[in-house]
Design goal:
CATH architecture of the largest domain: 3-Layer(aba) Sandwich
CATH class of the largest domain: Alpha Beta
Number of domains: 3
Oligomer: single chain
Number of helices: 14
Helix content: 40-55%
CATH topology of the largest domain: Rossmann fold
Largest sheet: 6 strands, mixed
Radius of gyration: 25 Å
Strand content: 15-25%
Length: 440
């Protein structure tokens, strides 16, 4: 824990107030214990911020235990309960709720730091997941040990140590903690990395987490430099604080172009940035390079990327939509008010679900509106059938047809007409599939 202590010594001062995001698990309880030791040395104030996600039967008991722990150690205890979740990506939504709550407490207690118990293993998992999923340079760097926010800092002191080192610290110091059994379920992507990938990396180098920390720091430095340069160029190609002059934009270096697009997306999505991948940057660049004078594509959460008479901008359109094209990754909110979500398993075989094998397709998948002459090879039928005829046979009102989602691969081959018909690409339950989609 020497690097953890060195880091805390370098940032903490006498009388500082720290808000600690604490789940009651082994990581946050270890950090709580470390901060208590610093409180004896430097008279810092600690605010324990706990969020009850109401997803496990043990959640209420854990809240009560943590409140009693804080009372016993004279720590300010603040908690909130998440009663309802929307239709958004669950993990992203829960994270946004937590951090809004944490920031409220930072402001309430005039805290200098918000601390979380993210450790070295978390950093490895985050970096690898984003590399596989696709992200921006900023996203590929994972997360930093210290981030300056508006009036405070987010600090992650445990980034220097592994999960095993934290558990050893807990054992040595007789620290009690709660166990979240969902952390062991292979249902979640992060858990699969934790179970299958991390042991291999640690076998190669037990200090591999420090290599990832160095990688993260270097990439962040480069990204910050490029961002400074991109901001200078952005002012040259942007007008009215929103619109990009496409002709001027096309003359910029490719790296600067990508950074400008990423910056626009980061500013627009903010807490929902997890929904954005590098594929959306490519989609926007293709839109700008299109020969069409006026064109647009839909991005996650109903955001519209628009090209109009030589300018480009992002907007949430409320006007009547004539057409759209959206990259399909894990979750898509559609203009017709429906959603398509990637899920892990399905027991039913109705037309609201689709099972696909990526080896049969050219990824990535896209969701678009119908085009004139669209045809699909319907599952169980020989030959093809016009999408127009499927709408007629299904008695879909004319006013609903233009917005009805059509799922295609990157060669524009129709693979699914959600809620209506499956294509020949739909895989039977007893055969291999690695993509399962739900329309709801």
């Amino acid at each position: 824990m020497k690097m953890v202590n060195d880091f805390l010594m370098s940032i903490l001062s006498e009388g500082d107030t720290v808000v600690l995001g604490c789940s009651g698990g082994p990581d946050s309880m270890a950090l709580m214990d470390i901060l208590l030791k610093y409180r004896k040395k430097m008279n810092i104030s600690i605010v324990c911020a706990h969020v009850n996600h109401k997803l496990r039967v043990e959640s209420d008991d854990e809240l009560v235990y943590l409140e009693k722990y804080c009372k016993r150690h004279h720590i300010i205890f603040e908690s909130m309960v998440i009663k309802n979740y929307g239709d958004d990506n669950f993990h992203n939504e829960a994270r946004n709720i937590r951090y809004r709550f944490f920031e409220e407490l930072v402001n309430k207690y005039n805290a200098k730091y918000l601390m979380t118990a993210h450790h070295g293993d978390d950093l490895i998992e985050t970096v690898l997941m984003r590399i596989v999923r696709g992200s921006t340079a900023h996203g590929y760097s994972g997360f930093e040990k210290l981030i300056k926010k508006n009036g405070y800092y987010i600090a992650r002191p445990l980034i220097f140590v592994t999960k095993d080192e934290i558990l050893e610290y807990d054992k040595k110091n007789c620290i009690s903690y709660a166990i979240d059994k969902s952390n062991f379920s292979s249902k979640y992507t992060r858990n699969r990395y934790r179970k299958d990938v991390l042991p291999f990396l640690k076998k190669e180098d037990k200090n591999v987490h420090l290599k990832f920390l160095k990688y993260s720091a270097i990439l962040s430095e480069y990204d910050n430099y490029i961002e400074e340069e991109a901001l200078k160029k952005f002012k040259m190609v942007c007008f009215d604080g929103k619109y990009v002059d496409i002709e001027k934009f096309e003359k910029l270096d490719k790296v600067i172009q990508n950074k400008i697009i990423n910056k626009m997306l980061e500013d627009y999505y903010q807490d929902d940035l997890i929904l954005i991948a590098d594929i959306h940057t490519d989609l926007i660049k293709s839109l700008m390079q299109s020969k069409r004078t006026n064109s647009s594509v839909y991005l996650p959460n109903g955001v519209k990327a628009i090209k109009s008479y030589g300018k480009f901008y992002l907007d949430n359109e409320t006007d009547q939509i004539d057409e759209y094209e959206i990259e399909l990754f894990d979750y898509v909110n559609l203009p017709n008010g429906k959603n398509i979500k990637r899920i892990d398993d399905v027991s039913t075989s109705d037309n609201n679900y689709c099972r696909l094998n990526s080896n049969d397709l050219v990824l990535p998948l896209r969701v678009r509106t119908r085009k004139s002459g669209d045809k699909m090879k319907v599952k169980g039928l020989n030959g093809t059938k016009k999408i127009k005829d499927i709408f007629i046979d299904s008695k879909i009102p004319v006013k609903n047809r233009d917005l009805w989602p059509v799922v295609v691969d990157s060669e524009d081959t129709i693979v699914w007409l959600p809620g209506l018909k499956k294509s020949k690409f739909d895989v039977s339950k007893n055969k291999k599939c690695d993509i399962i989609l739900k329309y709801y």
